[in-house]
Amino acid sequence: MNENVALTADITSAVGPNHAPGLAEYVDLPNSTPITFTDNEYSTRLAAVRARMAAQNLTALIVTDPSNLYYLLGYNALSFYTPQMLYVPIEGDLYFFAREMDANGAFRTSWLPQEQTFGYPETFVQRKDTHPFVWVAQKLRELGEVNNFSHGQVGLEMDSYYFSPKAFEALVKSLPEYDFTDSYELINWVRVVKSPAEIDLMRGAARVCDSAMAAAFEAVVVGGRQCDAAAAIMNAQVRGTEDFGGDHPAIVPMLPTGAGADTPHLTWSDQVFIAGETTVVELAGVFRRYHVPMARTIVLGTPSRRLDYLAQSTTEALNGVLDAVRPGVTTTELAQIFDVGLAKHGLHKPSRIGYSIGIAYAPDWGERTVSIRTDDDTVLAENMTFHIIGGMWMDDYGYEVSEAVRVTDSGVETFTDYPRQLLTKE
Amino acid sequence: MNENVALTADITSAVGPNHAPGLAEYVDLPNSTPITFTDNEYSTRLAAVRARMAAQNLTALIVTDPSNLYYLLGYNALSFYTPQMLYVPIEGDLYFFAREMDANGAFRTSWLPQEQTFGYPETFVQRKDTHPFVWVAQKLRELGEVNNFSHGQVGLEMDSYYFSPKAFEALVKSLPEYDFTDSYELINWVRVVKSPAEIDLMRGAARVCDSAMAAAFEAVVVGGRQCDAAAAIMNAQVRGTEDFGGDHPAIVPMLPTGAGADTPHLTWSDQVFIAGETTVVELAGVFRRYHVPMARTIVLGTPSRRLDYLAQSTTEALNGVLDAVRPGVTTTELAQIFDVGLAKHGLHKPSRIGYSIGIAYAPDWGERTVSIRTDDDTVLAENMTFHIIGGMWMDDYGYEVSEAVRVTDSGVETFTDYPRQLLTKE
Asked: Fewest 10 Å CB contacts: which of A247, A285, B58, B268?
């Protein structure tokens, strides 16, 4: 159903969707969205999600995380600033709900048939006294009556980015007959082990990442503005390579500079780079929503002794971790290896040294599942993918170096191919 | 407190924060973040927020929306992918809570003294069995005992993007002595009327926006890849102008193309633009987090009759709305003027035609307050700022044209200066 209906017969016949014959030569050409995965890939994913739902004793799952929507449906649009959700029963058809203007076009990127997609009316958008999920709840009840939804426990992504407490309360109050429970990061955990098709996309993202870091190294220059360097990086990220067109990263380039390099998540200003200054660059290459991040540190001049010491110590500790990656090793062990490597040099890092990566949307490119730290005991398996980071934020200075990796059948594959060291420029 | 403490005396003296004299010539130079607003601007904002808190009978407000944190504190970092919050009592000191690695550097962009900023330990990050706000709640209780927090109603931003149901439940369960209530978009509503300093920043953002749209017009070209056009746009957005260094937009450029131009929130692919095709470009110029968006439609060739008709009708209806903007007019009236303007041409648009704009972070550049639609009855006042959009998403084609505007003392100021029409290229 189109959103803007022509109201008079005259206009309907002249410009309506049926393309009156006389207008054929003017009709706008269609543009196809590339299909990224096979039907078989999607059905395998859904089966894996349902197996986990069964294990968690869920009869249905409500999905709001845009990365999980992309994983299950291929749905890819910047529509998640208004509420949307996918209803996944343990068996039977899936139903997707979004704002009407987005629901109309969802089939352009999602495999889900248009008749399983419903748009809530515009009047529910950003209202103090109601919420779109009040409408969605009523539609779910109607669908449940027709399709005989079973009413066991229904999982909610209680810590998803685009599922607010107001949305949660709308569901709980509107569907008292539902027994809601936290699904935790159910689909995110299914995503931890990648398929061969996903690994191929990440290898493409890695080429984009290498190109973006090369652009960063070129653009961070004495007298240049930080924003100009960020622009050169984003240009490289989004352009991508000839073979792999770039996609938007979940996080824009982070460029903590000078004394600000002691804090990890600053972006940039319009100030210029100064001789002698250090800039930590953290960025990702993205191909069809799959992220491969990388961090490097650039010094404009001769590094200070303390920075040089920090860089050598941290890179060595990271190398030790990479040497240890293989199936059967635990994340605890990796974190301990890093700790021991740093301690040899009198250093300590209290934060995690990595996390699982793959599909992402703003504001994070981590999968929010595996953390590489001593209080996480995930056993590594083939085709898990991580961003492993030596990020050292000291007082007034800092150093960061990282690698995105795949666990192979016997060791590690580093996705990118960029010198793993402090980068100096005269 | 730094996050990575050197463990041995040897290293502490050589590379510690006190910069041993022998190392002076190597010490990394500081880099300052430009101060955007005066102390007086910040104290005026806080007073306005507290006046509204009093009107809503709140003794405290818990702020999680990154745009509201920037508004009150100047705090600007991509740290909101892990939970953070500002505690604003009706009187007395403010307290900010973030992940330890971010709390350490918050003072680099925020005016808040470092002793009012607390970092929760890394072990609370992304854990199934707990949440950072469990730690924050305990710290709030301690601070409340020392500072004698009053326990009336405490407002929560129940529909904020980075406040999950899990975070909400952590607060409710950990602080049973608090009486939480929805603050609705309290600070967002304070932000609706801009100060002269904010208007200045938006005029800067407008120059960036004009430059980005010019880059878009140049880059959308037959045979060029969509991703290359998006890269050129982002390059222009982030570079900005000589006077106004660009900042990252809350939403990346949206480029629905060809038949996909019937749905508003698609990004881009690696497909090439085809002769005859239509591309809807929606983007924002950003200067120090202030957004000025613009939408235009580009045709590569001669527009179809139906598109030309749609474009002329929609632009004319938008012009009618712009002519009517002045203090005292209501949003309902503006929406009705647009409806009547379209109806003359047999067209109808069910979605809102605009919203309030200003500070923004991903995933939305709207303020989530005023919507220009018939069921919103906001009375326009001087220095309100809106993005007014004629967005028409038909079956298989679409047209979008918009203006970012300021309500002046007697009419309208359009921020940007770009031809308001269907843009054609041979």
From this structure: B58
Does residue B265 belong to the interface with chain A, where contact is any CB pair within 8 Å?
yes
For chain A, give the percent of residues with pLDDT over 70. Answer: 92
CA of A142, closest CA in chain B: separation in Å?
Answer: 24
3-state class of B103 per DSSP? Answer: helix
CATH number at residue A382: 3.90.230.10
User: Span B297-318, mean pLDDT?
Assistant: 96
CATH number of the domain enclosing B150? 3.40.350.10
Phi, psi angle pair for A99, to nearest 5°: -55, 145
Residue at A21 is within a domain: no
Q: How many structural domains are present in chain A?
A: 2
Express each pLDDT in B242-283 by its tens digit: 999 999 999 999 998 887 777 889 899 999 999 999 999 999
Distance CA B279, CA B254 (A): 9
Q: Is pLDDT of B343 > 60?
A: yes
Range of the structural domain that residue B112 is part of: 39-190
Residue A6 belongs to a domain: no
Q: Are B183 and B155 in contact (CB under 8 A)?
A: yes
Give the integer Cα–Cα distance in Å for B142 and B124.
Answer: 19
Query: B5: how many CB neighbours lie within 10 A of its CB?
Result: 17
Once rounded to an integer, what is the mean pLDDT over residues A298-312? 95
The rounded mean pLDDT for chain A is 90
Which residues of B fall within a CB distance of 8 Å from A161? 81, 161-162, 164
Flag whether residue A18 sits within 8 Å of chain B, measured between CB atoms.
no
**pLDDT: which is higher, B184 or A6:** B184
Tokens 């509204």 belong to residue:
B52
A60-79 residues touching B, CB cutoff 8 A: 76-79
Same domain, residue pair A81 and A186: yes
A298 shares a domain with A232? yes
Q: Considering the domain boundaries, does residue B2 fall inside one?
A: no
Question: Which of A10, A232, A245 has its CB closest to that of B227?
Answer: A245
Question: Is the domain of A144 the same as that of A202?
Answer: no
Long-range contacts of A173-177 (CB under 8 A, 24+ apart): A174/A133, A174/A134, A174/A137, A174/A138, A175/A137, A175/A140, A175/A141, A177/A141, A177/A151
Same domain? For B173 and B253 the reply is no
Q: Does the pLDDT of residue A414 top 80, yes or no?
A: yes
